[in-house]
Amino acid sequence: MRRAPIFTTAEAVEEAFYDAMQRADLDAMMSLWADDEEVVCVHPGGGRLVGLDAIRSAWGAIFHNGGVDARPTSVRTYTGAVTAVHSVVEQVLVTGRSGRSEVAECIATNVYIKHASGWRILLHQSAPAHEESPPIAAGTMLH
After folding, report:
1. Is the residue at 41 inside a domain?
2. How does pLDDT run across 87-120, given as a tens digit for each residue?
3. Which of 22, 67, 69, 130 could pair with 93 in a Cys bridge, judged by C-beta atoms 3.0 to 4.6 Å apart?
């Protein structure tokens, strides 16, 4: 079993989060979450997932088809002593209904908490940025 990395900043966790997403690395993804059954994840168009088991299952299903090319932009941050909140625009490369690659934008909120073992994700919530986003092929998950 891989040892969980120690992140000294919320920004470092966020960088690792999007890297794990792009590489479809489930173990790396799960090592980023707080060891707390109150962690929450909401994928675009999905329901609220509470707890590590539900989050692991969802990411496993998403990664079954490979990595997700999501890149954070327009990052706005608040960092306190033990909590950090990041609001980002995610640019996600998806295959549209036409079969062409298109960029869909999502608005995400990432909340991090600081433990003795470093910073970890407490919440990730993402939703389409526009009601009229590019048409996406059926069965495609943005993440």
Report:
1. yes
2. 999 999 887 677 788 888 999 999 999 998 899 9
3. 69
E strand map for 35-138: 40-42, 48-50, 70-79, 83-95, 101-115, 118-128
pTM: 0.86
Unique residue bearing structure tokens 């073992």: 117
β-strands 83-95, 70-79: how paired? Answer: antiparallel
User: How confident is the model at residue 3, as a pLDDT?
Assistant: 67
Boundaries of domain holding 123? 10-128
CATH code, domain with 99: 3.10.450.50
Which residues touch 39 (CB under 8 Å, ≥6 apart)? 33, 50, 51, 52, 55, 121, 122, 123
